[in-house]
Design a protein that fits this description.
alpha+beta, five-stranded mixed beta sheet, 2 helices, 37% strand, binds iron/sulfur cluster
Length: 120
């Protein structure tokens, strides 16, 4: 079976055409570096994604703080993790790099602040 992937590892966004034989790569074309093949392998066996979103802030000069995960999570867990993050609240002040929530849903992944928020 032929499948086309767009590599998201770097801004080049290579379009990679793969011939699959029982979920193993029989032929691969279009990846301009070895990371492309690694990406496709991961997409076939265990697709993962990072999340960038925001969390509600109490008593801050802004009402929300931007956050991201410190590691990627299984793609199948994105909805559950987003739901968990949406329910979070944090008290100001917040510093870039602060852990807003550690080990979210026991995935060994932390939610990290990516913006400074001062007290009102
Ligand atoms: S295959 Fe390599 S060059 Fe192409 S998008 Fe992926 S990481 Fe970038």
């Amino acid at each position: 079976m032929k499948k086309i992937f767009t590599c998201i590892i770097c801004p080049n966004g290579c379009e990679i055409e793969v011939e699959l034989d029982n979920d193993t790569i029989a032929k691969i074309e279009g990846a301009t570096c070895k990371k492309g093949k690694e990406y496709v392998n991961q997409e076939i066996t265990n697709p993962r994604r990072n999340i960038a979103t925001s969390v509600k802030v109490l008593n801050g000069d802004l009402d929300i703080v931007s956050v991201r995960l410190n590691k990627s999570i299984p793609k199948s867990m994105i909805f559950d993790v987003m739901k968990e993050i949406k329910a979070l609240e944090v008290n100001a002040p917040v510093k870039i790099g602060d852990t807003i929530k550690s080990n979210i849903l026991n995935l060994d992944v932390d939610v990290i602040a990516t913006k400074n928020i001062d007290l009102i």
